[in-house]
């Protein structure tokens, strides 16, 4: 059965999932649920009232972006076979997720000056600590987090793209251009990024 990634018809959390699926050549369908018309009707029937979810078959849906990414990574050899590398990949993803969560929380702040001040605190605090450590890891491992391409690299790639409009990413993680080149140089990823399946090419 063809996998089905269900999200909204816009770039967002599901782009990571599509990247991993594209890398592994997995057959999948992408369903974009219109926020205004369809989402209010679908929401009560979702497990946690949120998207994305992955429809594996008629009986099984998987929710939560990281859990879905892990499943897809295991299906595409992006989840390290070595237990230590696998655990480190989990650590790096959770650390990145912690930083992203602080930025997502900014949506609750309506005062723009207060929001700018909070961004400054995040950048000078947890972001700089986390990304400084990850940068050292990338530098040691040739632009990869665990010394070989893994789902953690794709997760960091998507996180840094999200942050580029908010933070001087290259200043905070100088290895970013190398990581970006490593991922975008993969032929299947290059093909995806240049296609209409990449919703980042479409103005939201």
From TrEMBL:
Domain called GST N-terminal: residue spans: 1-80
Record domain GST C-terminal: where: 82-204
Protein's UniProt name: Glutathione S-transferase
PROSITE patterns: GST_CTER, GST_NTER
GO biological process: glutathione metabolic process
Entry-linked PANTHER family: GLUTATHIONE S-TRANSFERASE
Domain of life of the native organism: Eukaryota
Organism: Naegleria fowleri (Brain eating amoeba)
InterPro entries: Glutathione-S-Trfase_C-like (IPR010987), Glutathione-S-Trfase_C_sf (IPR036282), Glutathione_S-Trfase (IPR040079), Glutathione_S-Trfase_N (IPR004045), GST_C (IPR004046), GST_superfamily (IPR050213), Thioredoxin-like_sf (IPR036249)
GO terms of molecular function: glutathione transferase activity
């Amino acid at each position: 059965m063809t996998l089905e990634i269900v999200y909204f018809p816009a770039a967002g959390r599901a782009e990571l999932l599509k990247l991993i699926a594209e890398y592994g050549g997995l057959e999948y369908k992408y369903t974009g649920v219109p926020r205004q018309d369809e989402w209010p009707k679908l929401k009560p029937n979702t497990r946690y009232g949120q998207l994305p979810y992955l429809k594996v078959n008629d009986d099984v849906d998987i929710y939560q972006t990281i859990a879905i990414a892990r499943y897809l990574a295991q299906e595409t050899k992006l989840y390290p076979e070595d237990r230590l590398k696998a655990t480190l990949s989990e650590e790096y993803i959770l650390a990145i997720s912690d930083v992203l969560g602080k930025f997502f929380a900014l949506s609750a702040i309506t005062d723009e000056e207060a929001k700018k001040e909070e961004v400054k605190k995040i950048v000078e605090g947890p972001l700089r600590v986390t990304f400084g450590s990850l940068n050292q890891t990338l530098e040691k491992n040739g632009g990869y987090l665990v010394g070989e391409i893994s789902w953690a690299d794709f997760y960091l790639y998507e996180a840094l793209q999200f942050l580029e409009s908010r933070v001087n990413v290259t200043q905070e993680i100088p290895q970013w251009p190398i990581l970006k080149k490593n991922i975008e140089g993969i032929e299947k990823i290059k093909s995806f990024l240049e296609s209409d399946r990449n919703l980042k090419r479409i103005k939201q």
